[in-house]
Amino acid sequence: MLIISYKGEWVSALAAFRTWSALGNELKDKKADEVPLHLQMLADKFDPLLMGMYQGVLMCMQNYAIELLSKGMFKDNLSKAQEISQLLVWGFQDHQEVIDYNKALRFGLKVKWYEEMKETWETIRQWLSYYLLKSARVHFIRYILPKEINKL
To answer: CB within 8 A of 114, min separation 6: which ones?
Structure first.
């Protein structure tokens, strides 16, 4: 998820893009002289190039999620991979919302309880710890699915 600094706070690109979209919906059927002053002032605060960049990053994340899901747990069901990727990228009210075991099941993900895969979880923790404290505007963490290693 792309996190941006805004007035000393860190917010997700999704939050900025949702605000931009909501404002667009408010303004779409109004003529310039019909727009209330508070909406004009709010509209002036947004940089359309940044909003386009944020939308692009969000769409890139969705495509990446589709790629992973369609090559992994939903390799025989592209429409399910697309449906779940939509939920994962656009379906949260806040960036800090946690996908726990039960929520993952509700989303339709094929999950196992962590105790069934302790070695895998330890590997993931070690892998993520490398990136956790790295300062960057964007972290694209990618990995290669095991079947693709032989193709390289």
So the answer is: 101, 121
Query: CB-based contacts of 23: which residues, under 8 Å, 6+ apart?
Result: 39, 42, 43, 46
DSSP-based three-state secondary structure for 11 = strand
What is the rounded distance in angstroms from the CA atom of residue 87 to the CA atom of residue 120? Answer: 25
CA 119 centroid distance within chain: 27
Give tens-digit pLDDT for 17-74: 888 899 999 899 999 889 989 888 888 888 888 888 888 888 988 999 999 999 989 9
Residue 143 has a pLDDT of: 56
Structural domains of the chain, count = 1
Rounded to an integer, what distance in angstroms lies between the CA atom of residue 122 and that of residue 143? 16
Alpha-carbon distance values, 114 to 21, 58, 120, 131, 144 (Å)? 38, 28, 9, 22, 22
CA geometry: angle 37, 38, 40, nearest 5 deg = 60
Structural domain span for residue 68: 3-149
Could you report the per-residue pLDDT of 67-104, keeping only the tens digit for each?
A: 999 998 999 999 999 999 999 998 888 777 888 899 99
121 contact partners, CB below 8 Å, separation of at least 6: 114
